[in-house]
From TrEMBL:
Organism of this sequence: Sutcliffiella rhizosphaerae
Domain PAS: 9-60
UniProt-recorded name of the protein: Anaerobic nitric oxide reductase transcription regulator NorR
Domain Sigma-54 factor interaction: 150-380
Listed NCBIfam families: sensory_box
Keywords for the protein's UniProt record, in alphabetical order: ATP-binding, DNA-binding, Nucleotide-binding, Transcription, Transcription regulation
Length: 456
């Protein structure tokens, strides 16, 4: 709605601009004043009608408005000394449709830079306090991320963020599924941070990273002298460290069957028995588990226990891959550029259209982690203000080329067929009937192909 159609009348606009907190001056292309608002006139002790037509240098000390109409270049946040004070001035040229400068407008934001200094130091001290508080909170609880750290405005991510808010307080177990690098850990932290346990510890254990024989002592701890090599005083297990808080079991699909039994027992009984202990210890822990493994198939093959599955799968939580939400790529790219520039002191303002298109087309098997690494490499390689195709790692720009000479024609065609099937099923959110329709084949022939290519 334009000003003319709105309830705002021209008189109202005049009053607002005349008394605006900012001082405003408008000049023509010769530097002659055509408007100066009341508050600016009061300060410079001139009459708002009399100044019209005067050269701006006759009215305002140290002005550069007459220069801006000559250069056509805006000058932002410039310091200008007026009547004994440094002020912060913005000067912006005005162009006509032929791109000729027809004038300029200037604003002065702070009448006195001490106001600005005060405000600046106040903001800085607040930021410092918040940072200290966050560091302390991270140190005390282990929580590194909150929902605000999850970047993305696609429908899928927005819905997931809503779901986090709904389920965080419920205190039930959650199983987060999703490919590697999709942000499972970020979501686990955010759920804990929004739960009633947020002031208690968030403890992470990567079940795939710990050798089988050490996993039990990592989870449940041990008593002094429990085995040769045991530490003096024993060791607290992750369960006890997480008491009152949340235990995040990453890569739970990689846990061996004997460990699954022990974990299930601890979850069911609410108690753990450190190795070498004679009595169990009560614990109150919420478990958030994560995996990229096909647990249902593993259950069929008796590689994952059904009872444990149902114990941890109270609320399923699926994080879509990056290729299912390419709308998030521009925001993520900017986020990572800013993050990396802040860390390295580089000045990169964005990416070219071509780069954005390339990034949106790539399949991102390593998801957001891979995107972050690619941007990091590009920022380091770039000497331009915007990231260009030259700065992108080769594999991103070559991703559509066919590996000539490496595969037979039959294999190449099969690869393409497989890729088309996987992508379509993902796009249809696993609805095979819809996917078959989109691929132009029957449901039974889709199932045949899934079997042929061992697609789960
Ligand atoms: N939505 C997001 N916004 C910003 N950064 C993200 C987002 N999702 C993931 N990341 C970043 O991507 C990286 C991988 O995230 P994370 O470790 O949570 O993934 P994951 O799914 O747990 O991976 P894995 O299964 O390999 O453990 C981290 O550096 C994280 O900060």
């Amino acid at each position: 709605m334009g000003v003319k159609d709105s309830l705002l009348t021209d008189e109202m606009m005049d009053t607002i601009i005349a008394n605006a907190f900012e001082w405003i001056v408008v000049v023509d292309n010769k530097g002659k004043i055509i408007y100066m608002n009341d508050s600016y006139c009061k300060f410079t002790e001139v009459d708002s009608k009399e100044v019209i037509g005067m050269h701006v240098t006759e009215v305002i000390e140290n002005t550069r408005m007459h220069e801006v109409v000559k250069t056509g270049k805006e000058e932002l946040a410039d310091l200008q000394f007026i009547r004994g004070n440094y002020m912060i001035a913005n000067r912006v040229p005005i162009f006509n449709e032929n791109n000729e400068v027809i004038g300029a407008y200037g604003t002065v934001i702070f009448r006195d830079t001490s106001e600005w200094d005060k405000m600046n130091s106040h903001v800085k001290s607040m930021l410092g306090r918040i940072r200290n508080y966050l560091q302390e909170y991270e140190l005390q609880t282990g929580v590194k991320y909150t929902l605000e750290d999850i970047i993305g405005n696609s429908k899928l991510i927005t819905l997931l963020k809503e779901k986090v808010k709904q389920i965080a307080a419920s205190d039930v177990s959650i199983l987060i599924r999703g490919e590697s690098g999709t942000g499972k850990e970020l979501f686990a932290h955010s759920i804990h941070q929004l739960s009633n346990r947020s002031q208690m510890p968030f403890i992470k254990l990567n079940c795939a990273a710990i050798p089988e024989h050490l996993l039990e002592s990592e989870l449940f701890g041990y008593e002094e002298g429990a085995f040769t090599g045991a530490k003096k005083g024993g060791k607290k297990g992750k369960f006890l460290l997480a008491d009152g808080g949340t235990l995040f079991l990453d890569e739970i699909g990689d846990m061996s069957l004997p460990m699954q039994i022990k974990l299930l027992r601890a979850l069911q009984e609410g108690e753990v028995e450190p190795i070498g202990a004679t009595t169990p210890i009560q614990v109150n822990v919420r478990v958030i588990a994560a995996t990229n493994r096909p647990l249902e198939k593993m259950m069929e093959e008796k590689r994952f226990r059904e009872d444990l599955y149902y114990r941890i799968h109270v609320i399923p939580f699926y994080i879509p891959s990056l290729r299912e939400r390419t709308e998030d790529i521009p925001l993520l790219v900017n986020h990572f550029i800013q993050k990396i520039c802040k860390r390295t002191g580089r000045r990169i303002t964005g990416v070219t259209e071509e780069v954005l298109l390339t990034l949106s087309r790539y399949r991102w098997p390593g998801n957001i982690r891979e995107l972050e690494n690619a941007i990091q490499a590009a920022v380091h390689l770039s000497s331009e203000e915007k990231l260009t195709m030259q700065a992108l790692p080769d594999y991103l720009t070559d991703s559509y080329s066919i590996p000539l000479g490496e595969k037979t024609l039959k294999e190449t065609l099969e690869d393409a067929e497989k890729q088309a099937i996987v992508q379509t099923i993902e796009k249809c959110h696993n609805d095979k009937l819809v996917a078959a329709k989109q691929l132009g084949i029957s449901k039974s022939s889709l199932y045949e192909k899934l079997k042929k290519f061992s697609i789960q």
